[in-house]
Amino acid sequence: MTETGKPIPEVAENLDIHPGTLHSWVSRARRNGSPSSDRPVADPSPGGRLRESELVEPERLRAEAREKG
User: Which pLDDT score, from 0 to 100, does residue 38 have?
Assistant: First the structure.
């Protein structure tokens, strides 16, 4: 959502995670200097679906959450 501009609840649903968890991750990333949501997006994927490259980081974050859980 920081790159696509999609709302957190929509992205959370696509990733099958709780929206609060994603919101927490986004807030932490923004505090740590990650790109903000006003950053231009290059060629959004057709049909609004997430591209594979857009899923890599959330997959890593889900694995990290499972390890902590």
Answer: 46
Opening angle at CA 45, ends 43 and 51, nearest 5: 115
Q: For residues 14-49, b (16+ Cβ closer than 10 Å) or e, as one string?
A: bbebeeeebeebbeeeeeeeeeeeeeeeeeeeeeee
pTM of the model: 0.46
Give the residue among 6, 3, 2 at the shortest CA–CA distance from 48.
Answer: 6
pLDDT digits 0-9 by tens, 19-69: 999 888 888 888 877 554 444 444 555 666 666 667 677 778 888 888 887
CA torsion sign for 53, 56, 59, 65 is negative
CA 34 to chain centre: 12
